């Protein structure tokens, strides 16, 4: 009887250990790697939105998911090393932020079995991340920040009714910038604009290249460029000297009184779009079957700075006085 009782207790202990082990396995957190290009408000918002959407879909940070975040301070030469470190942790998914990071990750992670969801990519087809806008690629899909260029120009015409020449500084070495410039050129005739494009290869050229717009452009539109946005204060200073107002693709610089106006994509929403896609992938959906998402018109918003408009010597049109988009 004592042996039977002892055996029964022993069996219960083993069973309990097995159940505890199974419970521990069930509670094991999913690891997600986040490969960012550098610290910038737009990119930070896309990461925050990503986490928010995942939490809303049952993947809560600290409970269900643990994130490893890394960035290279916008140094493309360090991206392969960053991707390798994230890959070594064997994550269930890697979230890549910006086109350069996503392009390098696509090559580095090919055949690894680790799915990639990208964000802050303007044209994933031109960047060769996906074969078309209708589908993802093997192990990769994501959310784009493709702006409604026609809406940007419509807003610019309302703000600056007499503007006819639309200046666009861009980085010729960045796929996002080149793709967006092509879309701007396509939309310009219908909006009544002539496009004046100037290439900027590095931050040391900003003063000279922006100054070259003098007498050639009536407004400068600064795209969501990984070269230009971190240096938007320098772009603005050069444009102010040239007497050319700026419409920016990011509203942060408007809120800070650095540039006069913006018509911007909400990067928190872009990140949420990516997070919803990531949730589908984590639940077993093949990335190849998920088309890259685009921001809806409602995901854009205008903003005007009274302070910066005055600094550029431009008056806010009466027609926009009640737009609800003016900050001090």
UniProtKB/TrEMBL annotation:
InterPro entries: ABC_transpt-TYRBP-like, Peripla_BP_I. Pfam families: ABC_sub_bind. SUPFAM superfamilies: Periplasmic binding protein-like I. This is ABC transporter. It comes from Kumtagia ephedrae.
